[in-house]
Amino acid sequence: MRPCRQGEPLSQRLIFDASGILNLLRILGGRAPDVLRRGSTITLAFYEVGNALWRECSLLGRITSEEASKTIRTVFGLLQTMNVVELKSEKIGDSILNLAIKLGITYYDASYLAEAIRIGGVLVTDDEKLSKAAESIGLKTKTSREIIDRP
Prior knowledge:
Number of strands: 5
Radius of gyration: 15 Å
Distance between the termini: 22 Å
Largest sheet: 3 strands, parallel
CATH superfamily: 5'-nuclease
Number of domains: 1
Strand order of the largest sheet: 1-4-5
Shape: globular
Oligomer: single chain
Number of helices: 8
CATH topology: Rossmann fold
Structural class: mainly alpha
Order of helices and strands: EHHEHHEHHEHEH
CATH class: Alpha Beta
CATH architecture: 3-Layer(aba) Sandwich
Strand content: 5-15%
Helix content: 55-70%
């Protein structure tokens, strides 16, 4: 992914976490790709989406295994059309770890923050704890609803 430049539109600097991706898909259905392609995510999103669907199916019983399978195929297809960033350098790994320790959040959550910081972007999340952690370090956040209502 190329770094964003000052003055680039906000839509070019949106980082979607798994909660934002799933909720936009639930709310917008077939229109979600148009919104999600305006930003990017990280490779972790593939795993977090899968884990969220497993949880909703196996632990909470909110969806059937067929619904989970259909959703995972849809989301994975969608993610493959987005700009998906790999965070694999030693420097970024250290930065993520330091954020996680400093903010008392998981390494997974800190990875979304690190990417948003790296590009000077806005994190799109519906995770309240992650949003509060981001705001505590001055990182802008938006919910999926805010992206829909005020892009």
